[in-house]
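Here's what a typical entry looks like (NADPH-dependent FMN reductase-like domain-containing protein):
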Amino acid sequence: MLIVHHTPSPNCQAMFEAVVSGATAPEIEGVQVVRRAALAATASDVLAADGYLLGTPANLGYMSGALKHFFDQVYYPCLDATRGRPFGYYVHGGNDVTGALRGIDAITTGLGWRRAADPLAVTGEPAKADIEACWELGATVAAGLMED
């Protein structure tokens, strides 16, 4: 599983760490988790993974430029080869994450990826329940790959 993230703030960092913790929980067996910053992830990383977990802040009402850059780099090289692969994602914003959710949904629909979990949208400082939901998101996407 490939986790692609842009983690510029303490709130995003807390969410990212919880996602990784869930994805690498002891009960998740046989799933290798690879973490890449959005500006460092490549088409080769995407092609080598069986599933994806994406994380971004909502900046100016949209996904971060780093995650958009990731999609721009991998879209056509991965378009046919990754159709049907499972994914999940989380977004953190100060107040409105609607544009980020819409953008990620549009791009992943174009790629033909299959949503393995509902997106997780958090505004403001993540509460304990939000961090637990991040853990669940990571565990859910990873557990789905155990069956494949």
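Helices lie at 10-23, 43-48, 65-78, 98-111, 128-146.

More examples are in the samples folder.
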